[in-house]
Design brief:
Number of helices: 10
Largest sheet: 6 strands, mixed
Helix content: 25-40%
Radius of gyration: 19 Å
């Protein structure tokens, strides 16, 4: 049983006012012209970050991954709550954690409105609340046959960084930042409203997360490996090994993957230049009900599984 089977079996009861179960965020009716958008993510030491990761980076990532969920819905951040489980009361650690959390919150104009603390294994849970104009939220369930598939920036850098760390290899600050300080694509998400038919953030791996769109939309897709945007180091690694599993299944990118009608291709190109975010077409939505690759790589890649 994986994470999604667990949710479906034990927690999939009918919810009043909930428009879209199992998206990046829940979308709820709460006013005549706005939808409330909310999500929660938990990060745990030893699973989502190393024991020697700085409290500054832990705080940043804990909030950033939640903001990425809001970005995937095209939502504006409003509030968040924090549940913090600590093994001990370390004032120096808390000071650094708090400083970093506050800086990122201020950057994206999201306010901390409550939470909880307890003693135990280091775990951080953040619940975010945002808003989006009524019936404008980007969803996973609305991809259309013929849509072009796009991703933002480069894919696989965080997984590449993790691999190098585990292998004991030196790593530049650029890749450490990709792993520890992902940039939530809030500006992009907001600008995709009215352009994209569907959207998701890439947290567990490109193929797995794209499959969430395909399953919810009841469509298929084909992606071209050579079109996936890669950083130089990762591109060099793949040229040597032909191992595409890092960009296809590595996860922790927190970039956006979205589909949009072909007629908007030039608008998307202009948007990329306007907001200075690289947007690359990697495939096309079709009616096959499957995800296929174009390229010389047939190995099955295992994306992140929570259980």
């Amino acid at each position: 049983m994986d994470e999604f089977e667990l949710i479906k079996k034990y927690f999939n009861w009918e919810q009043k006012d909930l428009l879209n179960p199992f998206d990046d965020c829940a979308v709820v009716n709460f006013s005549s012209d706005k939808h409330l958008v909310t999500s929660i993510d938990t990060i745990v030491q030893g699973i989502h970050f190393f024991s020697n990761t700085s409290p500054n980076d832990i705080a940043y990532k804990a909030l950033a991954v939640n903001l990425s969920d809001l970005a995937a819905m095209g939502a504006k951040p409003k509030y968040f709550t924090l549940a913090l489980t600590l093994p001990s009361l370390d004032k120096k650690w808390l000071s650094k954690f708090s400083y970093s959390l506050k800086n990122l919150a201020n950057k994206h104009n999201i306010n901390l409105i409550g939470g909880d603390t307890t003693k135990g294994f280091l775990t951080i849970s953040i619940s975010v609340i945002g808003e989006v104009e009524k019936n404008k939220a980007l969803l996973r369930s609305t991809a259309q046959v013929g849509d072009l598939i796009f991703v933002s920036n480069t894919i696989g850098d965080a997984a590449y960084a993790l691999k190098q760390i585990k292998n004991g290899n030196p790593l530049s600050q650029r890749y450490l930042k990709k792993l520890n300080r992902p940039e939530p694509q809030l500006v992009l998400g907001k600008n995709l409203i009215g352009i994209a038919n569907s959207c998701i953030d890439i947290s567990d791996g490109l193929e797995q997360d794209l499959m969430h769109i395909l399953k919810k939309s009841k469509v298929g897709a084909s992606i071209c490996l050579k079109n996936i945007p890669l950083s130089k180091d990762l591109s060099d690694y793949i040229n040597k090994t032909n191992d595409w599993c890092l960009p296809l299944a590595g996860g922790d990118d927190y970039e956006l993957c979205f589909t949009a009608p072909k007629k908007y291709a030039n608008i998307i190109k202009s948007l990329s230049a306007k907001i200075k975010v690289k947007l690359t077409q990697i495939g096309v939505v079709n009616d096959s009900m499957e995800l296929t690759r174009v390229g010389n790589f047939n190995k099955e890649c295992n994306s992140y599984k929570h259980f």
